[in-house]
Design a protein that fits this description.
By secondary structure, the protein is an alpha+beta fold. The protein has two domains: 16-354, no CATH class; 357-463, Immunoglobulins (Immunoglobulin-like). 42% of the residues lie in helices and 19% in strands. The protein contains 16 helices and 16 strands.
């Protein structure tokens, strides 16, 4: 008796993407989301055009190795400030996540903001959710081609303007505008404008929820910052289940919950999840489902809040809003807040008390020490003096540390605002002074017009054996 050969089974390791058509919704959280869109984009697009002391207010001039942030001028030696600023931003994100979950993702993340802008353009050109779904199913036609072309042209325009603005933070934006007008853009500027524009166009126009679900690492480790008292989007299962269509007339059967299974919460979700299945890593906390559910509850005459911001503890223990707020100041939040305040305090204190003068002393390696015509011992140095202030200053250079040690080159130098200059100096001491070999000396650079602008730097004076 022959046995039938086993049938081959194909297991697909990757599920094809299903197109998501988010429905437009209005409500408190939708308004808050659009407020964040306007606020962030007014800052992003407007900041490069803001002037400060006859220069661009915020400019990261990589060619000159100077970072201008309003009244601050940071040099490569000040990189620690930028590093600490990133640490502060990270702790702010941790604190916000511990308190309110993925509120950053839902309202202020650039991916969310630009996706919202691109979807608004799409709705204005192609129509509502149902109209877009019908359009995509239609065969090719002149009308469909016109709408698709208009949409992608508008997306491209926004993306190019975004790329231009991004590069404007590294090349003075007025200069960049003139270069574009005269077709004199450099190769690197063209590359970065197109690269950033393509990234914006691809992420916000095509990838959308795929970035949040598969590319963003934050979605993967956010759970480590969550606890039972973190605010998340929740579905009140006890109140909503069993769900079922709204009954116009009384009928015999089980008592239904408040959820009428309209699926509006799913239709408005930008990542296409059903929040009624519980918290999922794809949820970005945008609260679109809250606005949708509240609008449905208003129409059918039920109480709002079937889907709402709440916590796991609040849902399990039926906590009131007062009890929920009381749980905000818990140990994890207090620790995050304490660390953040400490870092911010040290950062601001260091930033605003720093001396806007930097000096590096480099001894001439080609001459370890030499005897000059009058018998004195001479060493040659190069002082790299950086005036990090935006005002010009005149500085006096002095040296001390050995008997009869003196400066025999020019003792004063004037630097313009934000200028750096290498100043060669010759230092001598009398024969017989100091020990053979290395001797400690100290250079002092003092601004003549500002007493606080003073820097002392140690160096080594070499006496030949």
């Amino acid at each position: 008796m022959s046995s039938a050969a086993p049938k081959e089974q194909v297991i697909r390791m990757y599920a094809a993407r299903e197109e998501i058509y988010p429905r437009e919704i209005s409500g408190r959280y939708a308004s808050l989301r659009w407020f964040c869109v306007w606020a962030t984009q007014l800052v992003f697009y407007g900041l490069p055009w803001l002037q400060w002391n006859d220069r661009q207010a915020v400019l990261f001039d990589l060619a000159a190795r100077k970072f201008y942030i309003f009244g601050l001028v940071l040099w490569p030696q000040d990189f620690i400030y930028l590093a600490v600023l990133l640490v502060i931003c990270a702790y702010l994100l941790f604190l916000a996540t511990a308190v309110a979950g993925r509120v950053w993702c839902g309202f202020a993340c650039p991916q969310t903001v630009y996706t919202e802008i691109f979807m608004w353009i799409e709705r204005r050109i192609e129509g509502s959710r149902s109209a877009r779904m019908r359009l995509d199913k239609q065969p090719a036609s002149l009308s469909k081609l016109a709408k698709k072309t208009a949409k992608h042209a508008a997306w491209g325009g926004v993306a190019l303007w975004t790329g231009f603005t991004f590069v404007g933070y590294f090349t003075p934006i007025e200069l960049l505008s003139r270069e574009i007008a005269t077709a004199a853009l450099g190769g690197w500027e063209i590359f970065w404008i197109l690269f950033y524009a393509l990234a914006t166009y691809g992420n916000a126009g095509w990838l959308r929820e795929q970035v949040c679900k598969y590319m963003c690492p934050y979605a993967r480790f956010q759970s480590s910052m969550f606890d039972k008292d973190t605010l998340i989007i929740t579905y009140d299962r006890e109140r909503g289940e069993p769900r079922g269509a709204l009954r116009r007339t009384p009928v015999k059967g089980p008592e239904l919950g408040d959820c009428i299974d309209c699926t509006m919460c799913v239709q408005v979700c930008p990542t296409g999840i059903d929040i009624r299945n519980g918290l999922q890593y794809e949820c970005i906390g945008c609260a679109a489902c809250v606005d949708a559910c509240n609008s449905v509850m208003d129409k059918v005459g039920f109480e709002r809040g079937l889907i709402r911001y709440s916590t796991d503890n609040a849902m399990k223990n039926s906590m009131s809003m007062k009890q929920l707020r009381r749980r905000v100041l818990r140990p994890r939040v207090l620790i995050y807040s304490g660390i953040l305040l400490l870092i911010v305090g040290v950062f601001l204190g260091s930033l605003f008390t720093r001396t806007p003068l930097k000096v590096d002393v480099i001894r001439d390696r080609g001459s370890m020490g030499r005897e000059v015509d009058d018998g004195s011992i001479e060493n040659v140095y190069r002082l790299q003096i950086m005036n990090t202030d935006e005002k010009p200053h005149r500085y006096r250079i002095t040296v001390s540390g050995l008997d009869t040690v003196r400066l025999v080159s020019a003792g004063e130098v004037e630097l313009a605002g934000t200028e750096s200059r290498a100043v060669p100096v010759r230092v001598q001491t009398d024969q017989g002074k100091g020990q053979k070999g290395s001797n400690r000396i100290q250079f002092e650079v003092q601004a003549l017009d500002a007493e606080r602008l003073q820097v002392k730097e140690k160096a080594v004076f070499f006496v030949p054996r």
